Amino acid sequence: MFDLIIRNANLPDGRQGFDIGLAGGKIAAIEKSITASPGEEIDAAGRLVSPPFCDPHFHMDATLSLGLPRMNISGTLLEGISLWGELRPLLTKEALVERALRYCDLAVTQGLLYIRSHVDTSDPRLVTAEALLEVKEQVAPYIELQLVAFPQDGYFRAPGGVASLERALDMGIGIVGGIPHFERTMEDGARSVEALCRLAADRGLPVDMHCDETDDPMSRHIETLAAETVRFGLKGRVAGSHLTSMHSMDNYYVSKLISLMAEAEINVIPNPLINIMLQGRHDTYPKRRGMTRVRELMAADLNVSFGHDCVMDPWYSMGSGDMLEVAHMAIHVAQMAGIEDKCKIFDAITVNSAKTMGLEGYGLDIGCKADLVVLQAADVTEALRLKPNRLFVIKAGKVIARTAPRVGELFLSGRPASIDMGRDYVPPVLQR
Question: Structurally, how many domains does the chain consist of?
């Protein structure tokens, strides 16, 4: 009756000690005790079982290219863009595919099975688009990879940028991107938002736009994006990424802006690791950290999801493909340390991101896809604290990755021989 049963699992909504039965690539049962004998069993032993992690904002064409052709000495956004401009003419399809596949291997071990990647379309060769379309096909059995046509050097600013982006869409890239704050003028940025939303509406495609990734409190492109979303009937199909300018905006203006964004049903994608690394670089002290107003946006019922953005590339020399690392940082920067806050943060790397990406069949309910992760933690708050090992990663009801529990051995007189970080340090409030 069942291909696999996960026994004694804790669920993200707080339920404890449930069995999850998987059959035919779907979740077939969630019960206190399933008596059937399956083909395979996993004893979660009171650990958290979650839907897979989702990354709605990434740059897979640049990932793992750290040091090519040189390092980002200043660590700034603008040097990263300049460095990518140096690397781009040297890119080959083979190297792009190899790095992307290696990253996908890492992602699977981290329980990250859904990724949306921006694809630079500013080079008219479009080798990035060719490579990532091939990667998308190769990884389809285990990762759903969505691709965004992204005019890195500006839709209008880059020579041939308009034509290159449309060609990328013709090749099969399915989401319209943009970067209005990188156009030459504020007016050109607003024109690009209007043109790209019109293009998306004409083609029936979603929009995912880098927007106001700046410390400038007068950057107004998210306002324009929200207005054009309403104008072109794109409600719910548009994402605004970064939005770091909101960190610096006047509170009264933000109160108006958030209402407009809510009317347009904008999906919001902060990128905590990158945002706090790259913003505020012109400040002395006090120094801004640039992450957008997560708590206020969530309070307005906007769908907020977090992206990893970069891993070991010209913009960010760190990163691990672990969305719990992203969420862990968000807790600190957004100062959302309460239990309810942490549950919302966990949602931002799971169910909220799935909504941003328009995923079907995602979740932990009967009838959902049998895509699950067993973590070495008791619940979502512990998962966010510990960033624990993914003990089992399951796709369509089959285990596709596993990692041994993190257990430390001790050689101390009178002390335990070993400690399990995910079991021995569960707070009393979580112990049964």
Answer: 2
